[in-house]
Amino acid sequence: QVQLVQSGAEVGKPGASVKLSCRASGYSFTSYYIYWVRQAPGQGLEWMGKVDPRGGSTDYAQTFQGRLTMTRDTSTSTVYMELSSLRSEDTAVYYCARANVPSGSWHFDYWGQGTLVTVSS
Amino acid sequence: DIQMTQSPSTLSASVGDRVTITCRASQSLSGWLAWYQQKPGKAPKLLIYKTSSLESGVPSRFSGSGSETECTLTISSLQPDDFATYYCQQYKSYPWTFGQGTKVEIK
Description:
The structure holds two protein chains of two kinds. By secondary structure, chain A is an all-beta fold.
């Protein structure tokens, strides 16, 4: 069965970086884009960007330009999301989600369980 | 950026009620709209994609419809398991954007 398993909770200091992982299983890793979405406490969902596991190309929301890096490791079917220059507003649950590219409709059909990132000095 | 305006923000309803949630987009979506259900502490779950296609395994009481800029999610007969927050999301163009969410509460 399709699974996206994310790494555990992180605490980061203001100005530091955090790197989260999302390990995929149960499907052809390079056939589906992986996106990251975050949710601040009590707030809605915010789209961050995507990585194409096949070639590694990325697209990032303008909000995160210069602070966000998404990479992938095809040998372990894992996608990474690194956010730098952390600020308190980055405290949120971060989700990875699979886009159903082969269907032609790029909706998110599977999600990871989420990783809580807390930014605190 | 495409702005998504979702309404209402909160909805109080009883088991068995018919419930409708609306999302309005600032420009045409060409049908590229999805609906997700989220329960506290859990990841969102896909309900509807491409405006009206029901995701496999989702109960048939959920349905979606809409035009280029206005879409609706309807729950034909609200069940106890349906009390949650619902989000629409456009995937027509980057940055993909979500509605603000509708919390469906027990009346």
